[in-house]
Description:
The complex is a heterodimer. By secondary structure, chain A is mainly beta. Helices cover 14% and strands 46% of the residues of chain A. A nine-stranded antiparallel sheet of chain A has the order 6-2-3-4-19-18-17-11-15. Chain A has a five-stranded antiparallel sheet with strand order 5-1-7-8-9. In chain A, strands 14-13-12-16 form a four-stranded antiparallel sheet. In chain A, a hairpin with a 5-residue loop joins strand 17 and strand 18. The longest helix of chain A has 12 residues. Chain A is globular and about 55 Å long. Chain B contains no helices and two strands. The radius of gyration of chain B is 9 Å and the shape is rod-shaped. Chain B is mainly β. At the A-B interface, strand 10 and strand 20 of A face strand 1 and strand 2 of B. Strand 20 of chain A pairs antiparallel with strand 1 of chain B.
Amino acid sequence: MFEATLQKASTLKKVIEAIKDLVTDGNIEVSETGMNLQAMDSSHVSLVSLVLHTDMFEHFRCDRNVTLGINLPNFAKILKCSGNDDSVTLKAQDDGENLAIVFESEGQERVSEFELKLMDIDAESLGIPDQDYNTNVKMSSAEFQRIVRDMTVLGDTCSIGCTKEGVKFSVSGDLGQGNITLRQTNSVDKEEEAVTIEMDEPVELNFALRYLGFFTKASPLCPRVTISMSPDVPIVVAYNVGGEKDTEGAGSLSFYLAPKIDE
Amino acid sequence: KKGQTSLSSFFAKK
């Protein structure tokens, strides 16, 4: 059987909220190392990779690997029933048809029990190469969300260009064009707002803003986001889960998006 | 005009 308790149900709620609009159904693979989910959107343009290590959990027991086929919007509906400071326990039998979800308030005076029906999901799995990226930009996740939202006003495709000086987001559409440049900042009052760029060579790629917009729904998870790019490969937009700022969390939520190219 | 590529052209199926 599988049983795991997370001290903050809100963390799981934020994770599922962040992906439920991009991916409807997904298999959460549970093993002794933790919980993992890999799923593509219906057009196979973007991919979500969620890793929750056992360290994140107050209690984690997995006797045998289990695949939990989950309808994410429905899971999100149940997670919304948790209180802000509730803990959450997930339980499933080896061949069970349901996922049990139990919320407990801090003083344990309120216990809510739910069951979510599991599904058989025939999902395609992709091998993501473990590669080093040419460019890694770390910035405020709220700022990234704002830029993506602002770019969407003008068009559907955003160019992201990076040099040592800064990262430039550009868009053009029927009503005109715009661009926003963020300069690399070494000393800022607020650490969370710093922009740091590690790069080998300048890179510029084009991406569909619709998908970048979906990714930014993960902003409440972490004040910082890491954007990784290399020429002609998918961009990675990554958030730590259950960690603080730039420090490695015990989990991560990464989004991959295939670039747009000249036809 | 920019065309959208698919992830399967970058990542192999497992």
